[in-house]
């Protein structure tokens, strides 16, 4: 199954909150995709894994991650959430 | 699901003034440490984390910050509510642009838990069109703010 990776400093608090919200929203829209929260230190390792569909950032992206990237703040605050969700869904269906 | 008390009367701060983010962290750390909520390592850890991964959010009707650090620096989990008298400059998550925050929710999460995630989600939902932010500004004393925070943030089913 396709996988989205969310990362924050510790892999707790913000990244897990975003992961759980995004996972629920995708399920509601009938998208089969898992969302995993990780810490920044293991980000590269996770992004190199199989089936990675994208990186949802809640810290400033520092380089080209070679996968589609999405703004995770939208899912934390709810602002522009629909816009970002649509972007993810469109990409997942590709 | 595990349910823990997270809101404490003596961790509600109404209208303090701080000269800077550093001043706020230092002052709060002293109190959190004395009350047994955090380890001695907390101050350095929270400042490093905030420097590397800033936590202000452009929420409406006013911006907030949600500083937090690794669970190992926390002894007893808590959410400290700080309503600032004067807005404090704080870097935003992701963009790192500076914004003036009116309230700070210092999150002391001491382990990975579904409960903490729901609590943070609840807090964010409260800043998505509810009257909680206004009520927070209007609270006249600690008791009122404590009850508000317990009812809205700390009382999850």
What does this structure look like?
The complex is a heterodimer of chains A (94) and B (157). Chain A has 94 residues and is an alpha/beta fold. Chain A has one domain: Response regulator (Rossmann fold), CATH 3.40.50.2300. Helix content of chain A is 40%, strand content 22%. In chain A, strands 2-1-3-4 form a four-stranded parallel sheet. The model of chain A has no long low-confidence stretch (mean pLDDT 93). Chain B has one domain: Mannitol-specific EII, Chain A. Chain B is 37% helix and 20% strand. Chain B has a five-stranded mixed sheet, with helices on one face. Chain B is globular. In chain B, 39% of the residues are buried. Chains A and B meet through helix 1 and helix 3 of A and helix 3 of B. Chain B: This is Phosphoenolpyruvate-dependent sugar phosphotransferase system, EIIA 2.
- Annotation field: number of helices of chain B: 5
Tally of discrete structural domains of chain A: 1
Query: Which structural class should the secondary elements of chain A be placed in?
Result: alpha/beta
Going by CATH, the homologous superfamily of chain B would be Mannitol-specific EII, Chain A
- The secondary-structure element order of chain A is EHEHEEHH
Read across the widest sheet of chain A, the strand sequence of neighbours is: 2-1-3-4
Give the N-to-C terminal Cα separation of chain B: 9 Å
Strand proportion of chain A, as a percent range, falls in 15-25%
Q: Rough shape of chain A?
A: globular
Query: Proportion of β residues of chain B?
Result: 15-25%
What is the average per-residue confidence, as pLDDT of chain B, rounded to a whole number?
93
Question: How many β strands of chain A by DSSP?
Answer: 4
CATH architecture of chain A: 3-Layer(aba) Sandwich
- Return residue spans of chain B where pLDDT drops below 50 for at least 5 consecutive residues: none
Radius of gyration of chain B from the CA trace?
14 Å
Keywords (chain B): Pyruvate, Transferase
GO molecular function (chain B): transferase activity
Domain PTS EIIA type-2 (chain B): 5-152
Protein name (chain B): Phosphoenolpyruvate-dependent sugar phosphotransferase system, EIIA 2
């Amino acid at each position: 199954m396709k996988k989205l990776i969310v990362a924050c400093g510790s892999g707790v608090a913000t990244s897990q909150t975003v992961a759980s919200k995004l996972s629920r929203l995708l399920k509601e829209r009938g998208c089969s995709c898992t969302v995993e929260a990780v810490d920044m230190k293991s980000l590269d390792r996770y992004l190199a894994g199989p089936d990675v569909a994208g990186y949802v950032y809640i810290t400033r992206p520092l380089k080209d991650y070679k996968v589609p990237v999405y703004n995770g703040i939208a899912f934390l605050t709810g602002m522009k959430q629909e816009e970002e969700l649509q972007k993810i869904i469109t990409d997942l269906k590709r | 699901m595990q349910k823990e008390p997270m809101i404490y009367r003596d961790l509600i701060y109404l209208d303090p003034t701080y000269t800077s983010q550093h001043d706020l962290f230092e002052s709060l750390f002293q109190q959190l440490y004395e009350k047994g909520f955090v380890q001695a390592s907390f101050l350095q850890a929270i400042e490093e984390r905030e420097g590397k991964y800033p936590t202000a959010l452009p929420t409406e009707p006013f911006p907030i910050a949600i500083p937090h650090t690794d669970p190992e620096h926390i002894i007893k989990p808590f959410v400290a509510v700080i309503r600032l008298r004067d807005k404090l400059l704080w870097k935003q998550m992701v963009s790192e642009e500076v914004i003036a925050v009116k309230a700070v929710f210092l999150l002391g999460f001491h382990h990975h838990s579904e409960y903490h995630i729901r609590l943070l989600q609840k807090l964010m939902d409260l800043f998505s069109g509810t009257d909680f932010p206004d009520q927070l500004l209007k609270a006249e004393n600690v008791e009122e703010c404590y009850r508000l925070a317990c009812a809205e943030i700390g009382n999850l089913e």
